[in-house]
Records
---
Amino acid sequence: MKKTAAFVLTGLFFLTGAVVDAAGEQAPQKVVDLANTTLAAFGADPVIVKAVRDENAKGKTLAQIQEKDAAWKAFAGHADYMKAIMDSECGTHIRKIQENAPYYTEIFVMDNQGANVAMTDKTSDYWQGDEAKFQKSYAAGAVFIDEVKFDDSTQSYQVQVSVPVMDNGKAIGAITFGIDVDKL
C-alpha cells in the first residue's frame, strides 16, 4: 500500500510539474512597470476614448459581431472594412504610438463587447470578447498582463498587455498592446 501511495504521489508531482512547464512564463518586471504607467495612461487617451464611445453608440448586437467575426476569420487578406479600421483616425493614432516604441508588436482597441475598433495590423479575429485579454481588462476595469508566449506572426516572444478604456471613471472598452520582451 505504501508503494502504491508513493507511486501515486510521485506521479502527481511529475504531472503537476508538467502542467507548470506547459504554462507560459510571467512577464518581466519591465513589462509590469510599463503596463502600470505608460500603457495604463493610454486608456484615457482622448482619441481612443472617442473612437470607442462612437463605436459603442452604434449598438451592434453580439450576433452581428459574431457574424462579422466568422467572415473576418475566413478572409485571408485585408478586406476594405479591415483597412478602414486600420486607417481610421484611431488606427492612425495607435500606429504612431507603435512607431515611437519598437517593442510594440501590435496595438488594437476594442469596444464594450470586445469587437475591434482600431488596430495597427490585422488581428486573427474581429471579436476579442471571448478572450481573457478583453474580459480581464474591460470587466475588471484593470490592467491585465498575459503570459509571455512565442508569437509565430512576429517570430518573437511577446506578452499582451490589456488596459481598460475609461470614460468618466467607467470602462467602455479595452486596448491591447503586444510587447516584444526581447526589445523592451
Note: Residues 1-22 have pLDDT under 50 and may be disordered.
---
Amino acid sequence: MNEHIGQEEILFIIKEIENNPSTTQRTLSQKIGISLGKTNYLLKELIKKGFIEASNFSNNPGKLKKINYILTAKGFEHKIELMHLFLKIKEVEYNSLKQDLERITNGA
C-alpha cells in the first residue's frame, strides 16, 4: 500500500498542473502535504519521463524566473492509467467493507 502513496502524490501533481500550469512547487508541496524537496524530486522525475514539460516565462532581469508546467499527451495517458488503478483499488476496498458490513449485520 505504501507504493500507492507515491502514486497518489504523482496523480495529484499531474491533476494540479493540468488545472493550473503556473502553480509553484511550494504551493504543490503545501497542498499535497509533502516536503518541497520531495515535490521538486517528483517534478523532475515527471519531466524526465516526459509526462510534463517545464518552461520559463519570465525574462525580467532581477526577478525570479517563473515556470509554467505543461501536461504532455504522455502525461495525460499516465493520468488515466493512475486514475484507473485507484478506481480498482477503491472498488476492492468498497467490496471488502461491504462484505464486512454484511457479516456484522447478519451475525447480530
Note: The longest strand covers residues 52-56.
